[in-house]
Write a structure and sequence with these properties.
Layout: E1 2-6, H1 18-31, E2 36-42, H2 45-51, E3 56-59, E4 68-74, E5 77-83, H3 85-88, H4 106-124, E6 128-132, H5 139-146, E7 153-157, E8 165-166, H6 171-174, E9 187-188, E10 191-193, H7 194-201, E11 204-207, H8 210-215, H9 226-231, E12 236-238, H10 268-278, E13 289-293, H11 302-307, H12 309-314, E14 318-323, H13 327-339, E15 344-348, H14 352-361, E16 364-367, H15 377-383, E17 388-391, H16 394-399, H17 405-410, E18 416-418, H18 423-438, H19 440-452, H20 458-474
Parallel strand pairs: 1-2, 1-6, 2-5, 6-7, 7-11, 11-12, 13-14, 13-16, 14-15, 16-17, 17-18
Antiparallel strand pairs: 3-4, 4-5, 8-10, 9-10
Helix pairs in contact: 4-5, 5-7, 10-14
């Protein structure tokens, strides 16, 4: 079966978050299920460099300016690049201008991606389209209204908070029929809603964990779209993200100071020492070393970590912070490191090799998100033997087994959960974690459980494959 995946980023070509990891890894996992995936990406400079002199395979309608599709094999990806230099030949972040703020023509840029998806799906003769997040949200609209044959779509929500809303003046530029400008179409509270369109026109809707699939159908978690999602509940499901467990393997990872396995984890001590050195922390093998890796943002709960810092220091802990995000939180992280030298270290920026050392050297990884569709940090932490301390929400709740009394008695704990998601409960979880870490034999069992978890794509790829076959057999049955 042939599927066209449509997304705005894919690792290793371009990455701003977990979306790229999923789009980059899932095609290889699906190949084992008999699903051949072609991935359509915007022709950013990094993408065009990767494909070199790949031939053009399709010239696209000149609705958003001249554009064509070029095809190449890049690693495991069968790649289609949307070559439209006036839209995508820009430096830095794929969504934001260097001087700050989103690119003002993001509506046209990602509408062009949706139109290209419909044209490519038709030309390639695929049996289904898999669209990811708001940037691919118009693919379903173009397929529904302009494609010469029905092609079913699966739309995956990676984060409902990012919705892609644009002024109504964009609608005439899209080339969709007037009927599409309605609540039964792309209109969303008077604007053009890319994510809303993706949800409306999809034959099946998935999100990246079962718990998040339930949370987004509530007013508290639905970000204004809960009514639509409740109305479409029969086609909504949650499929957990996974990791490429060959690329994320502590037994072979060159970013680590020393490689190790679940059966022979002793070399983690060398990674802990290396991590302490990188962050300027006191070289103390006995100190509980916590790491935070990710966006410094309200959603990710970085402010909760800073609020719980007095408890972390009181229990003799150390903290390594790696990430970039909101300027205020970046400044507070730098301030915490300056105020507590040897106990707190902060590296502001994105450094994947250093992130891998954090996972491979920390005693535990903090993931205190206020909401989390799935999360990859806790999966990496499990894989690398740093039992995660997570808020009980979304995919975090689905992937980490809390070290409560019954789980400890049963010998199945893989980390710690806390709820509600506030600083006081996080502080309590830190105390609990420090006590467990202090019992070396017990923590070694928890760490071993974590490392033996199957965090790969195997189970989830099978579920996606079944879903694609189901929609292909049923045909396109979107809401008219």
């Amino acid at each position: 079966m042939r599927v066209l995946a449509v997304a705005s980023e894919a690792y290793p070509l371009v990455k701003t978050g977990g979306l790229a990891d999923v789009v980059g890894a899932l095609p290889a996992a699906l190949a084992g299920e008999g699903i051949a995936v072609t991935t359509l990406l915007p022709g950013y400079p990094a993408v065009l460099r990767a494909i070199g002199e790949a031939p053009a395979v399709l010239t696209l309608p000149d609705r958003f300016g001249p554009a064509r599709l070029r095809r190449a094999q890049v690693g495991a990806l069968d790649l289609l690049a949307l070559e439209a230099p006036h839209l995508f030949d820009r430096p830095g972040n794929p969504y934001a201008a260097p001087e700050g703020g989103d690119w003002p023509d993001n509506g046209e840029r990602f509408a062009a991606l949706g139109l290209a998806a419909a044209e490519a799906a038709t030309a390639l003769g695929v049996q289904a389209v898999h669209a990811h997040d708001w940037q691919a949200g118009l693919a379903g609209a173009y397929l529904r209204h302009l494609a010469p044959r029905p092609i079913p779509t699966v739309f995956t929500i990676h984060n409902l908070a990012f919705q892609g809303q644009f002024p109504p003046a964009l609608f005439p530029r899209l080339g969709l029929p007037a009927a599409a400008w309605s609540t039964a179409g792309v209109e969303y509270f008077g604007s053009v809603g890319f994510l809303k369109a993706g949800l409306w026109y999809a034959d099946r809707i998935t999100t990246v964990s079962p718990s998040y699939a339930a949370e987004i159908r509530t007013p508290a978690g639905g970000m204004g779209l809960d009514g639509l999602l409740r109305g479409r509940a029969g086609v909504v499901s949650g499929i957990l993200n996974g990791l490429d467990d060959a690329a994320w393997d502590p037994a072979t990872d060159p970013a680590l100071a020393a490689r190790f396995t679940a059966a022979a984890p002793e070399a983690r001590a060398a990674n802990k020492a290396a991590l302490q050195a990188r962050f300027g922390l006191v070289p103390d093998p006995a100190a509980p070393l916590f790491a935070f890796v990710g966006r410094l943002a309200w959603q990710k709960g970085m402010d909760l970590v800073l609020a719980a810092l007095p408890t972390l220091l009181e229990i003799g802990g150390q903290l390594a912070i790696l990430g970039t995000g909101e300027p205020g939180l970046e400044a507070q992280c730098r301030g915490a490191a300056a105020a507590h030298p040897g106990r707190v270290g902060a590296a502001i920026g994105f450094d994947e090799a250093l992130a891998r050392l954090c996972y491979g050297g920390a005693d535990a990884v903090l993931v205190p998100s206020r909401f989390e569709p799935c999360g990859l940090a806790q999966l990496c932490a499990l894989r690398y033997g740093a039992p995660p301390v997570v808020a009980r929400t979304g995919g975090l709740a689905d992937t980490v087994i809390d070290a409560n009394e019954m789980a400890l008695a049963a010998g199945c704990a893989t980390g710690l959960q806390f709820a509600p998601g506030d600083a006081a409960m996080l502080a309590g979880a830190l105390r609990h974690a420090a006590a467990l870490i202090g019992d070396a034999a017990l923590w070694a069992r928890i760490r071993g459980n974590a490392m033996r978890c199957d965090v790969s794509w195997r189970r989830s790829a099978a579920r996606y494959a079944a879903l694609f076959r189901e929609v292909a057999m049923a045909g396109s049955s979107v809401i008219a």
